[in-house]
Amino acid sequence: MSETRKLYIKTYGCQMNVYDSERMAEALGAKGYVQTDRPDDADMILLNTCHIREKAVEKVYSELGRFRPLRHTKPDLKIGVAGCVAQAEGEEIMRRQPMVDLVVGPQTYHRLPAMVEAVQAGGTARDTAFPEEDKFQHLPKVRKHPRGPAAFLTVQEGCNKFCAFCVVPYTRGAEVSRPVRQLLHEARELVARGVREITLLGQNVNAYHGEGPEGQEWGLARLIRTLAGIDGLDRIRFTTSHPDDMDEDLIAAHGDCDKLMPYLHLPVQAGSNRILKAMNRKYTAEAYIRLIERIRAARPDLLLSGDFIVGFPGETEADFQATLDLVKTVGYGQAYSFKYSARPGTPAAERTPVPPEQADDRLRRLQALLGAQQRTTQEAMVGRVVRVLFEKPGRLEGQQVGKSEYLHAVHAAAPKAIRGQIAPVRLTGSSANSLAGELIQTAP
Ligand code: 5AD
Ligand code: SF4
Questions:
Q1: Measured in angstroms, how far is the CA atom of residue 338 from the centroid of ligand 1?
Q2: Which of 329, 357, 380 is at the close of a domain?
Q3: Which atom of ligand 2 is nearest to the CA of 167?
Q4: Domain that holds residue 237
Q5: pTM of the predicted protein model
Q6: Which of 54, 89, 197, 358 has a CA 20 to 30 Å removed from the CA of 247?
Q7: Is the pLDDT assigned to residue 24 strictly greater than 60?
Q8: Does residue 271 lie within any of the structural domains?
Q9: What is the mean pLDDT of the chain?
Q10: Which residue owns the Cα nearest ligand 2 atom 3?
Q11: pLDDT in tens, 301-321
Q12: Alpha carbon of 75 to ligand 2 centroid (Å)
């Protein structure tokens, strides 16, 4: 029996990092580590970092600085940096910040147990390779008890699209799809532990093309339909998708697969064809709009979400207007918008930037429009009945919070025992980031 040690993990960035953090905790569980949510209690601190937008590296250094005093009170404390900043800047981080004992990239964290052993013996460890082997084959097969009834499952990783602004193809590497058999096993594991909703994750999840049980290739729609056959699994979602990979079968699944929720995150990034081309997005605004029409024809109540970048190099006011026009034409229930941030090593980083005041101004105007659309969408839900998967306590005494089919956070007065259940709720009000509702009492 190894002795018990405490592990504190801080996770930045996307949902895949949340999933990776869980898997790292499981891998280190085998080394006797149990998770704590207090850094001052930890024997090992791991920062699981994100490199997608600006100041990523600075954030890591300042976070490390905050942990420095802990090192004085606990000389044996080990500190590791994981994730995409580790992948991109790991060597430099170790050189500049000697308090870092360990650096591990997103594709090598199955090797953490051996790395931690080296670190415990007083050494340092750095592994940011893109290994041949499949890390998932080397991670514990039994999933830890999940935190709630909704879980993430990485089905695809990496990206071959090389959008001109994006670091992902460099930090996460080339596209890899996990084999169907592995995913069915993991999904069943989660469901056996009380999970009722699974969000399939991938940087380009709808490009999924994993090996099927008989060696043939499966697309995402086939995987979703098969997962839908698992008893006890009630809801399936997937994120993030590229418009070019929405194939016929996946569009159809939105109409005919009951367990696939009516919510789709489909980033467009910009509405100007000139900018889309400069971004290397490989579609036009018109093609995106037609695609949305087809998906909505399959699932009329779909709630659409998107990502937008303003101030991409070369973006003029007319280009930006085209983005506003696209948003007005399409209508988003929810969206994320960002100011372009030059990422080292990406093609767009070499181009002349838009003046920051202009980019700030455009971001403000875009967010005002998207915010208004989100409010209108939410307000239109009031009076309707949705089905909520309750996950955790609400802010007020006696309240529980969960997610509707449309991924809205919904809170309602309900007993604690409702957590993990899906119940009908009549929506009564809408506020900035959530909806309020009343449980509809069903006959016992
Ligand atoms: N600058 C600004 N936003 C970016 N994104 C990705 N790279 C950058 C960048 N360099 C945004 C895109 C993507 C989302 C995950 O982050 O909108 O869809
Ligand atoms: Fe990045 Fe997504 Fe483009 Fe891939 S498709 S390069 S992950 S923005």
A1: 7
A2: 380
A3: 1
A4: 135-380
A5: 0.94
A6: 197
A7: yes
A8: yes
A9: 95
A10: 163
A11: 999 999 999 999 999 999 999
A12: 41
